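Saturday, quiet lab. Running sequence design on the structure tokens for the scaffold JK sent over.
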């Protein structure tokens, strides 16, 4: 059966989402909602979408099974809760929520109507991420001791939602949610202690660093910035090995995507370069969302819910410390 999706807002990222959506045979994007009818119509025309409507009409529509929510961060909770309350499954952009209680209320709304709420993080659904998680869990680099993860780039456009504190802007919420969530994927739990520092401009953090200490005494450090050349990298160090990865959302944008692993404490030991499939992250993420809805499997939904709650708590706690 086809999963019929409606998009809430003609966001820039929704255009990229459409590229992946067109490659998932079990999915059809049937409607787009916009505050501005002309913008909605232009988006629908560009992407071959049949219906343009308001946000409320979209979530009330009987032609839609699930909503993709790419609104500014501060609107994720309000509209995801409205969509779930109307009985629609929700794929909501990262960061899911701006606090753990806000995230919890979103899951409560979804569960009360028996629908699925999933946070959209394309890199998490990439085969390379799943493989790295499995290798760490299987002890291929020994006991986890430290992890460093970063993501930074430059924002040139002063009107960008990422610079607006009232819309949930800031480097941590936008870029830092990647390293924080990747650390959570690898450690499998929220940290027990956090220290952080940030450089603030006009009410938002523009560059931020944090140290996350975990229950077993292992540490992670993250950094993020809106003021650097684009970079994205993680180093996961265990007692007997190391993994290095760019943990990209879309490995199909690279010519020969790979990650590196060393399984030895020997200083001379070489890294092995492991090739990974070239995949559009929106395609693999949407295929996973459609599979979860079709099979009704709860284990993955529950695991991803726990991760989203941990991430919302960790991100908001980092900001309080910074
Ligand atoms: N997973 C990823 O790879 C990825 C990448 C980039 C961004 N994102 C996430 O996607 C979301 C949107 O990012 P974006 O770069 O696509 O943003 P954007 O282009 O600014 O789009 C946001 C959309 O939200 C709607 N909107 C509703 N109220 C608004 C308000 N008060 N101010 C501005 N826009 C408002 C607008 O649509 P209408 O005017 O049509 O209603 C606007 O087009 C964010 O949560 C971001 O974190 C995810």
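Result came back. Writing it out in full:
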């Amino acid at each position: 059966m086809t999963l019929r999706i409606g998009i809430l807002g003609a966001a820039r990222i929704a255009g990229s989402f459409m590229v992946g959506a067109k490659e998932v045979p079990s999915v059809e994007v049937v409607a787009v909602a916009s505050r501005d009818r002309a913008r909605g119509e232009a988006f629908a025309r560009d992407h071959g979408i049949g219906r343009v409507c308001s946000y409320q009409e979209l979530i009330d529509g009987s032609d839609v099974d699930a909503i993709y929510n790419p609104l500014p961060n501060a609107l994720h909770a309000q509209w995801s809760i409205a969509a779930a309350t109307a009985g629609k499954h929700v794929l909501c952009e990262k960061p899911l929520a701006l606090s753990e209680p806000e995230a919890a209320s979103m899951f409560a709304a979804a569960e009360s109507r028996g629908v699925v709420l999933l946070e959209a993080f394309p890199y998490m659904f990439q085969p390379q991420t799943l493989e790295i998680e499995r290798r760490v869990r299987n002890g291929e680099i020994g006991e986890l001791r430290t992890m460093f993860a970063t993501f930074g780039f430059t924002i040139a456009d002063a009107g960008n939602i990422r610079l607006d504190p009232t819309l949930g802007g800031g480097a941590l919420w936008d870029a830092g949610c990647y390293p924080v969530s990747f650390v959570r994927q690898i450690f499998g739990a929220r940290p027990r202690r956090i220290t952080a520092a940030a450089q603030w401009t006009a009410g938002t953090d523009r560059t931020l660093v944090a140290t996350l200490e975990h229950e077993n005494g292992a540490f992670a450090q993250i950094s993020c910035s809106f003021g650097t050349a684009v970079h994205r990298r993680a180093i996961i160090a265990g007692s007997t090995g190391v993994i290095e990865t760019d943990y990209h959302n879309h490995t199909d944008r690279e010519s020969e995507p790979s990650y590196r692993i060393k399984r030895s404490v020997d200083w001379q030991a070489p890294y092995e370069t492991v090739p990974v499939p070239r995949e559009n992250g929106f395609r693999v993420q949407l295929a996973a969302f459609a599979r979860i809805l079709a099979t009704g499997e709860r284990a993955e939904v529950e695991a991803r819910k726990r991760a989203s709650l941990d991430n919302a708590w960790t991100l908001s706690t980092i900001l309080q410390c910074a």
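Notes for JK: The mean pLDDT is 97. The CA atoms of residues 176 and 224 lie 5 Å apart. Ask whether to fix the surface positions before the next round.
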